[in-house]
Amino acid sequence: MSLTKRVLILLGSVDALLIIMSLMDYYILFLKPTGFVFPMLLNIIVLAVIGFRSRFHKGWTIAFLTVSIPALLIHSVMVWLMENQYATIESPENKSVTIEYRSFTLGETTYLYEFYKTSFGFIGKHLDDQTIKLIIQGKDHPTGLGAEDALGLGTAEWITDDTVRFSTWQGIKELSLNSSRSSGRTEDITSDIESFMTKLESKESGDTINVNGNRLVAHYDEATDQPWIEITADNDEGAIPRQQCTRIVRDEERGYYLLEECTHRWEYPLYPLNDS
To answer: Which one has a higher pLDDT value, 181 or 206?
Structure first.
């Protein structure tokens, strides 16, 4: 097999790998800031060299360059105009998430955050159902507030091995690295919480739910005529420390179910509302 064929096979394999990864929402993270600029440039250079070395295909090579170079320039300009920025946060368990974010202003400022679950330090799985979008009206936008501050990036908290909690400008939001928890699974959890709240108000004992690594058990004290919640977790590794709370409430403004009147402090964020 000639050197030219080997190079073409290698180039085709790399291209196929990148396409398959993209279709599966996997990305090589160090290529994300430049989109497909470097793979496109590599293809143009290699094919141009091979074309010009061939005595029969120089015309086709010139035609190829006439089309591909403008396409590369247009793609480069589009990547530049997007002005995406990146940050990475790591968990104590050596897991990490790369955040791709940008903002644009048109009477109001919109901050858009995309998240990538990192594997092997350089491959990211796009969590397409975990996008966070924050819109702040111009009159409400604080001076100096940037995209990282709006997300609360500096105070991000790993509440479980697979869940990150952000104290954003518009309330608390959670990111799940396990995308199966989204959509239907989220609806299941919120439905469980609503049912638990109903039974607690009805003074029923024994109902149990599990949320973010915590086990919540409903109890009723006949002597005081008061329901209460026992909070536990395996190896005390849940998002909320072991203790007792009085009730769960829906906080529409903050977009969260809150545990209130707890042993260690007044309230704890438990889980996002379905529409938050």
So the answer is: 206
